[in-house]
Known about the structure:
alpha+beta, elongated
Amino acid sequence: MKECPKCGKDLKLKVIGTIEVDECESCKGIWLDKGELREAKDLADPNLNWLDFEIWKHEDKFSSNEGSVVCPTCHIPTVGIEYGHTGVNVDYCKNCHGVWLDKDELPNIIEALETEINEKTFSEYVHESIKEAKELVTGHESFMSEWKDLSSVFKLMQYRLYVEKPELVETLTDLNTINPFK
């Protein structure tokens, strides 16, 4: 039985969507084993499936310090990581790659990622679509998973285009009404 790294109480199994995590009933912190943070993020908002919250992926976006907890699996000190300027601070185990999230940190991660996709420009989505297209061939996920990521980027790119160029939406609507093939 794992113990809460914050208050020492036993962690209880909790199901979030389709994944099982360990939760402290006292402080409401959760322990996510390797890969479960990504799964929880994807379940929370399907538009985020392509946007990886991989802790070490963007070294320029995080700062690390000594973690505030000991890994409940390995019993070694964690590394505290702040992602960008989001205020999201997670405790990461370098050994088993598990993550400790204090109460409300998962919703804060989701909110930070949603803000990130909402602030991207059309040009940035074009760049992201090229990266995702390359990952169809070279990515570490399955082809279907990479295809879903690319489809999400295309959908968000389309939305961003319509936001940045509302006159384009009007033109396309006008063209649709005069379509001779209806």
